[in-house]
Amino acid sequence: MSDNLISIENLSFGFGKTLLHKDINMQFSRGKVSAIMGGSGCGKTTILRLIGGQLTPNAGKVIVDGDIVHEQDRNGLYHMRRKMGMLFQHGALFTDLSVYENVAFPMREHTNLPENIIRDLVLLKLNAVGLRGAYDKMPAELSGGMARRVALARAIALDPDIIMYDEPFAGLDPISMAVICDLIRTLNDALGATSIIVTHDVAETFSFADYIYFLADGTVAAEGSPKQLMASKLPFVKQFIHSEKDGPVPFHADAPNYKTDLRL
Amino acid sequence: MNKLLNFFGNLGFALRSKLYRLGAGTRLFFLTLIYSADSFKRIHLTIREIYYTGVLSLVIIVVSAFFVGMVLGLQGYYTLEKYGSSEAIGVLVALALVRELGPVVTALLFAGRAGTAITAEIGLMKATEQLSAMEMMAVSPIARIIAPRFWAGMISMPILATIFSMVGILGGYFIAVLVIGVDEGAFWSQMQANVDFSNDIIDGAIKSVVFGFACTIIALFEGFDAPPTAEGVSRATTRTVVISSLTVLGLDFILTSFMFV
Questions:
Q1: Quick one: CA dihedral B120, B123, B129, B135, positive or negative?
Q2: For residue A155, what is the nearest residue in chain B, using CA coordinates?
């Protein structure tokens, strides 16, 4: 059994003719929490979609547990996805179902468990994210942080091997953020899962991730443990970690000469 | 020369995108059929959608039908009276409703009431990544979301059209018999004698099934194909009403020319 549950090999991907990713290589080790970081729009979420098989690479391959994702037929892909849980940026809870029914959804769809077992499992999952008391609420009644925790309970409903988080901290208050951080680590270790987090929140991610990839200009600009990256002298990593407004990532978007634009 | 090239370029582009959408819509329809077996296993989903598309449309259908029936009664009476055949008002109201107005007006109202709701709901589900989440949970959104709504529309529309015709006739009866004072016996007996079951009622029912299919699949496709933004969903909702209405009117002409000419 390989140490890497997921590996991305020489992957290139783009929408239309422009390539978003150029020849990317990444490995995600079993049982570890890995993070993919980078500025907005650098294609972090796209990597999760490529792993989940929602997008097909232009070149290269994504291998999940020995199988090449984009070579799977629909059944193979669905079979693969049953081993994955994904937390979407805003939770993506089904708005017409209650919290309880949202968490029960994957169980009802993929298992023949009797109702009393489903009930116990749903309450266990909700308890793990601290929201057992909110089981009868509708998604519209939840705060952003709570919705994301319910979505997390739903993502782990079938005890997946892989849990993917798309911007789990975006738009959360500091308390909710700390709660989600803690949950990601705890759930990963308790379930023996492999977690991948896509984010641009430096402080939170560096506090608990095992391995971090930095994406910039469509390539992996840097990678390593949080400690290694903290010590990195690479200008891009320094600018990103210390939130400097100017550096390799310029403050100004590409533009013609300022004076010419102002007709001076 | 450039303008001419641009004109043909734009025309070709518009034509190609229309063709693409027609193809994508047809593909969605066949996928819906394929996944229907899956969705029938969870029949409660279809029943729930029948409630949302059918039962909740009842009020607007019943009220509109009654008014349409009353207007038919009034207008029909004034014209028929000139020729001394005001007793034929029952036939006029019934034929107009069963053959044309029942299916057509119901379909137009259905597109406005249920079609827009379907498009907006599916479009917003897409915009809030609910459909993606479902895909990632290895559940087909076509089996879970599209197919139940498709069958709900197919079942609701003919029933709504039937109710429309019945309530419309009652509206006509109310004006012609109760208000104006046309002979009640003549009203009903002429209607019974001149409305043919297989030619009029069955043909009207066929129309309502065809319109139900068109309105539902258009609403579903527009929602499923909507760009996942606020503007995208609003445009898709508008398109649902415009395309459904035009399709219903166009199909009605074609069906009428085959059925009643």
A1: positive
A2: B137
CB A193 within 8 A of CB A162: yes
Residues of B in contact with A79 (CB under 8 A): 138
pLDDT of residue A182: 87
Q: Which CATH architecture has domain A1-83+199-264?
A: 3-Layer(aba) Sandwich (3.40)
Q: Lay out the sheet containing A194-199: strands in order across.
A: A84-87, A162-166, A194-199, A33-38, A211-216, A219-224
CB contact (8 A) between residue B129 and residue A93: no
Beta-carbon pairs below 8 A across chains A and B: 45
A84 contact B CB<8A:
yes
The pLDDT value given to residue A138:
94
Strand segments (E) across B96-253 = none
The whole-model pTM stands at 0.86
Q: For chain A, what are the domain ranges? A: 1-83+199-264
Q: Please give the Cα distance from A44 to A207 (Å, whole number).
A: 20
DSSP B66: H
> Looking at the partner chain, which of A54, A79, A110 has a beta carbon nearest the beta carbon of B135?
A54
How many Å apart are CA A36 and CA A166, to the nearest integer? 10
Residue of A nearest to B130 (CA): A92
Give A257→chain B minimum CA distance, Å: 32
* Residues in contact with B207: Cβ distance below 8 Å, sequence separation at least 6, in sequence order: B103, B104, B161, B251, B252, B255, B259
Distances (CA, A) of B240 to B59, B118, B174: 21, 9, 35
Q: What sign does the dihedral A46-A49-A51-A54 (CA atoms) show?
A: negative
**ipTM surpassing 0.90:** no
Indicate the helix (H) or strand (E) that contains A50: helix A44-51
Does A82 or B105 have the greater pLDDT score? B105
Place of tokens 């937390």: A87
> How many whole angstroms separate alpha carbon B198 and alpha carbon B193?
13
- Helices B102-110 and B147-173 pack at an angle, to 10 degrees, of 130
Among A101, A105, A142, the strongest candidate for a mutation testing the B interface, having the largest count of B CBs within 10 A, is A105
- Residues in Cβ contact with B229 at an 8 Å cutoff, skipping those fewer than 6 apart: B127
What's the confidence (pLDDT) of residue A172?
80
Give the minimum alpha-carbon distance from B128 to chain A in angstroms, rounded to a whole number.
6
Model confidence pLDDT, tens digit, residues A155-182: 988 889 999 999 888 878 888 888 888 8
Where does the pLDDT of residue A239 fall: very low under 50, low under 70, confident under 90, or very high at 90 and above?
Answer: confident
Distance CA A132, CA A121 (A): 11
Instruction: Work out the burial of residue B110: count CB atoms within 10 Å of its CB; fewer than 13 is exposed, 13-18 middle, 19 or more buried.
Output: buried
List of chain B residues whose C-beta atoms are within 8 Å of the C-beta of residue A95: 125, 128, 130
What is the radius of gyration, based on Cα positions, of chain B? Answer: 22
**Mean pLDDT computed over B162-182:** 94
